[in-house]
Design brief:
With about 180 residues, the chain is an alpha+beta fold. The protein is about 15% helix and about 35% strand. The strands form 3 sheets. Strands 3, 4, 6, 7 and 8 form a 5-stranded antiparallel sheet that branches. The chain has a 4-stranded mixed sheet with strand order 1-5-2-9. Strand 10 and strand 11 form a beta hairpin.
Length: about 180
């Protein structure tokens, strides 16, 4: 009897809303100085959806590096002085656990992409409080991030990716 009653309620709820528009959640605003490259679909650019932000403290950033081990996470001044690819987009952390950020790339190709959450705003990575993430979304753990986890192939338009932020989780290192 309970199954019949539950089925009747579910059926009434479904038929009672037929034809009614179901409100869809609004997409988060695209953040950063390159937002127009993603919003207009111009490209080449990367539209990164960042999930798992711990809080709205400090700043968040996307950094673009050459797709090779020697240049991955290298000092930006060294890369720029050598005429290599480097780009950074930094914005104030949003008031939600999700953000959408856009970063232009010089031309279609393979790049390394890093996301950072600088929670104390000191512009230096603090192992104990800051968060990090890469397009590969593998657990970082306690070791240096691997280039393979940061690689992204960018086409002529806008390439979308999702990055889950990782923060220090006890003795196991960084994780989700």
């Amino acid at each position: 009897m309970a199954k019949i009653w539950l089925s009747a309620i579910v059926a009434a709820g479904v038929s009672g809303t037929a034809g009614a528009a179901t409100p869809q959640p609004a997409r988060a605003q695209v953040l950063g100085g390159d937002a127009a490259a993603c919003s207009g679909g111009q490209g080449p650019a990367v539209l990164a959806t960042i999930t798992g932000l711990k809080d709205a403290r400090g700043t968040i950033k996307l950094e673009l590096y050459p797709a090779n081990e020697g240049d991955f996470l290298e000092d930006d001044k060294k890369l720029l002085a050598a005429g290599k690819v480097f780009r950074r987009i930094t914005v104030t952390a949003p008031g939600s656990t999700t953000a959408r950020m856009c970063i232009r790339v010089p031309r279609p190709g393979r790049y390394a992409l890093f996301f950072g959450h600088d929670r104390d705003g000191k512009r230096k990575f603090d192992f104990w409080s800051d968060g990090a993430g890469f397009p590969g979304n593998r657990k970082i753990g306690r070791s240096r991030p691997k280039l393979a986890d940061a690689l992204i192939a960018v086409g002529p338009g806008v390439t979308a990716t999702t990055i889950r932020v990782q923060y220090l989780r006890g003795l196991g290192g960084f994780g989700f």
